[in-house]
Amino acid sequence: MRTSILTSEQGRVKWRPAWVLALLLVVIVVGGWEALIRSAALGPEYIDNRALWASTRHRLNTYGSEAVAVLGASRVQRAIHPETLARELGGPVAHLAVEGTSAIPLLEDLAVDPRFRGTVLFSVAPAFSFNRKLSKLEAGDQAAWVQYYRSQSRSRRIEHELRLTIQGLIAFRSPDATITRVLPELLLRGSLPETDFKTTFADRSVSIDYTKFERSANPQRIVDLYLQNTEAYEADEFADLMNYVSAIVEILKAKNSRVIFLRLPSADIVRDLERQMFPHERFWGYMEQHIDAEFIHFEDYPELMGFLSVDGSHIASENSAAFTKVLAGIIRK
């Protein structure tokens, strides 16, 4: 009996240093990998997916009547600097734009949600607001993102919030730092890969490095996408759509919400094609006449020009804070 007890105790004593050593090795390996990823500026970074969008949408419910909800597609997601807009307007900002989509489903969601009573800043991009072929152009159906947010269980939301917290704290969780991307570069070239052209932040604002995005930084590519995937609404179709949007706006106004439609800048051949395909009076002018809201068109405010990137369609990331400050001044007036 005594012999078996001694053997058991000796076994436990022997295993303890082994576990300590194993834990120490794990800490060294993981810590070294984390330091390596951070030294290459590959993280931390967020993934611009439904989980991050839904987290932002949930937070909007807690912001109160001073909140500003930013709706639209890539133009407004790259243009608006949420921290600057919040500081200039004196209220929290929820950046809810989704690249490659129409924001009308979200506009409807905000209208029927009794918890939202703030300001809606709706970016009108011709390719998504005036385009009858939108279903072929959409990179992700915004209605599906809204449905995902509505159907999220409490446990799933907690799980996603934990994942987002980890993404913001740990660099090797960055989409730029996946093992399948980093290890081949280390083994073949002996160096870490460069950062991607797109960086997504916790507030869902996006920074684009156009020096690494040369193929899409060409205005001609924007024009080609228009020509391939865009067709203007017929007059009766557009009238029906605007009647629907007008009804949604009236619901929002009944809750004392402020609705602002924003036409962001475009330039050169992109601007020329948009004028040709979507004549001002037939589209933007029609909206102004038939929707009881506020409207900001860049052509009416010369101070909004001069911030564009080389693609002629999006605000340059390094100019987003300055552009947002100018836009906020117009909104205040």
Enumerate the spans where pLDDT stays under 50 for 5 or more consecutive residues: none
What is the 3D shape? Answer: globular
Please state the CA-atom Rg, rounded to the nearest Å: 25 Å
Number of helices: 15
CATH class type of the largest domain: Alpha Beta
Helix-strand topology string: HHEHHEHEHHHHHEEHHEHHEH
| Approximate strand percentage | 5-15%
- Span between termini: 89 Å
Please state the second-level CATH architecture of the largest domain.
Answer: 3-Layer(aba) Sandwich
Summarize the SSE layout with pairings:
Blueprint: H1 2-39, H2 50-60, E1 68-71, H3 74-79, H4 82-89, E2 93-95, H5 104-112, E3 119-123, H6 126-129, H7 134-137, H8 142-151, H9 154-169, H10 179-189, E4 198-200, E5 206-208, H11 219-229, H12 235-254, E6 258-263, H13 268-277, H14 284-290, E7 294-297, H15 320-332
Parallel strand pairs: 1-2, 1-3, 3-6, 6-7
Antiparallel strand pairs: 4-5
Helix pairs in contact: 2-8, 4-15, 5-12, 11-13
